[in-house]
Fold this protein.
Amino acid sequence: MIRSFRPPNPSITRRQLIAGATAAAAYQQLGCASPVPGGNGLGALSGKSLQVQLMFSGPVNINYHYYFLINNSNNSAGPYPVPVGAPISGTTYGNGFATGSDGQSAGFTDFVLYSNIQYPGAQPNQAYGLYHVANSSGANAGNNPANFVANGSPIQVFSPLTSGSSNVIAFNLDLAQLFEYPNSTYNQPAAINAAQQLTWIQVNIVSTDVVPVDITTSVTKHFDSFGDDSNGVGSYLNMNLIDGGNSFAPGTSVSLTEPTGDVFVSPGGGVTNQYPALDLVNWQITIGTD
């Protein structure tokens, strides 16, 4: 069963970061993105969407980088995306924010980036940009930012800068946007069909203050992701879009928790509570209709 787009259940909100009325107001202010949905002029909407709300301990910093990563695998085994720390000589990643759990691939095929800083060709809406990873370079293409294809923005976005919910990032992504992008082989009917047949995706959020790609430059990097990041890896969410239920949240539908103050420091290890803008403390993802 697919539910209509609506505010999340306020009962899961932690530490009263967003009361039910505030969350509802936030979603009511979601604005339409342009182009819709993708950057190639297609207008296919599948009717199935991911409605994402991410809550942080403090106000979001638009000069940081907030990646919502999606592995459009249609396979329950993944691989899944995990965050990376400061550059280390000889490592296989090169994008500065995430890599795959298998140690080879990037672990993601698409991502939404909320930031003032976007990649070439971006068409952001209120600082939200959508990207697809070109697969011409193989499974590890996402490790190279040169393979990121700008794909417009989510069909609806919520800006933390224009309301009282400054610690919330929220958007609505139609699943057809994972299949229609510049130079895609999918036409509109094919994109809609592929989106409606999609069963499994893996997702993660990586919030970070810097995105270093030069392994010769020393830099201190702070980041958080799904789960407890005290180990420098955190966790991820394996989503069954058909039989997994309609809504996912920490401590309810899945066994993930979101501790406060678990922003990881790299290099050196350990966590800090000194970066509330990066500290993910609650979230909700709902499978809905456009």
Notes: The CA atoms of residues 94 and 143 lie 5 Å apart.
